[in-house]
Amino acid sequence: MSKRPEDKAVVRGDPLCAVLIPPRLIRFRELVEIGDEQLDIDVTGWNKFVLLGADRAYLFPREAAGVEWFERELAVYRTLEPIGLTVVPRLLGEWRDEAVYPYPFAAVSRLSGTHPADAVDLFDQLFRSVAHWHDIEPPAMPGCRPPAHHDRRDIRWLRRALDPGTTREAVAEAAERLGCATRVERWSELMEAAAQYPHVLVHGDIHEDQLLVVDGRLTGILDWETARIDHPFWDFDLSEWGTGLWRHHRLEFSHLWSVAWRSYANERGLDRDPSPLETAFRIRHALFVLDTDRDPLIAGTIDEHLAAI
């Protein structure tokens, strides 16, 4: 009898052994001085395993290719520590010990809270926090790049549209593909305004599973491995969020982008008009729908996205 997709796998033995076999686990406990403290395991990350202690989270790259993303995450924690942003974990320790693990590993503070079932009520708090890390002097992050899924036609288009050197060319291309020649000037004005924003440190993968909340208060923003220096709009990308947001709140996106941008702009002293932000993502999403056969109940329709701008 075949296994149904919704069935969960049965785990036999200690789940921690999926990361550290018993002799390595003993050495690990000695090294980080936690004795027999209870540890839980989180294997949901694409690039790392996480062992969860009472007040610390221990990060382990899954494989050699994940070390790059691991090192990037630690670099961000070092960069953000001086500004005291309480929703960001603090780096507490780093180790390289092949008797424990073949790759480097680290400990960060474990923040309180649970993942929100519906994060839309957090947008004001979330994007005020985003403004704080966008406001710092961007650190040197040589070699940092967007994740592989950004190599997609609609995302490449948005990158060109947000580059002052290619904004008008990108807008003209989108208008032609979408049959909106009469909108070229208006779209160009808005996208040229967007393209003027300097690059900042972006998280690059904000969505509900990266957030922690306690009684409606945002307490954590996790998983900074995709951080990079990039256009600020990439931290407003709702396509990184789960399909639940799109199924239940897609028709509220104009309002959500408005709340997000105005909260953010107030903190940074920027123009509070959300039109450039929404225009950028509406055109990009219309191009995505044009190029794919995604369920319109999730992705929306071209007419829906264009009608909003």
Brief account:
With 309 residues, the protein is α+β, with helices and mostly antiparallel strands. It has two domains: 95 residues, Phosphorylase Kinase, domain 1, CATH 3.30.200.20; 188 residues, Aminoglycoside 3'-phosphotransferase, Chain: A, domain 2.
Keywords:
five-stranded antiparallel β-sheet, single chain, Aminoglycoside 3'-phosphotransferase, Chain: A, domain 2, alpha+beta, 2 domains, Phosphorylase Kinase, domain 1, 11 helices, two-stranded antiparallel sheet, 309 residues
Structure description:
This protein has 309 residues and is of the alpha+beta class. The chain has 2 domains: 15-109, Phosphorylase Kinase, domain 1 (2-Layer Sandwich); 120-307, Aminoglycoside 3'-phosphotransferase, Chain: A, domain 2, CATH 3.90.1200. The protein has 11 helices and 9 strands. The protein has helices spanning 22-32, 67-80, 123-134, 153-161, 167-178, 184-195, 243-249, 253-268, 275-291, 296-299, 302-307, and strands spanning 40-42, 48-52, 56-61, 91-95, 105-109, 200-202, 211-214, 217-221, 228-230.
Described by strand count, sense and barrel closure, the largest sheet is: 5 strands, antiparallel
How helix-rich are the residues, as a percent range? 25-40%
Q: Give the CATH architecture of the largest domain.
A: Alpha-Beta Complex
Strand order of the largest sheet: 1-2-3-5-4
- CATH level 1 class label of the largest domain: Alpha Beta
Estimated radius of gyration:
21 Å
- According to CATH, the fold-level topology of the largest domain is Aminoglycoside 3'-phosphotransferase, Chain: A, domain 2
Count of beta strands: 9
Order of helices and strands: HEEEHEEHHHHEEEEHHHHH
Choose one word for the global shape: elongated
Low-confidence parts lasting 5 or more residues at pLDDT below 50?
none
Category from helices, strands and their pairing: alpha+beta
Tally of helical runs = 11
Number of domains: 2
Strand content: 5-15%
**Average pLDDT score:** 95
Gap between N and C termini: 51 Å
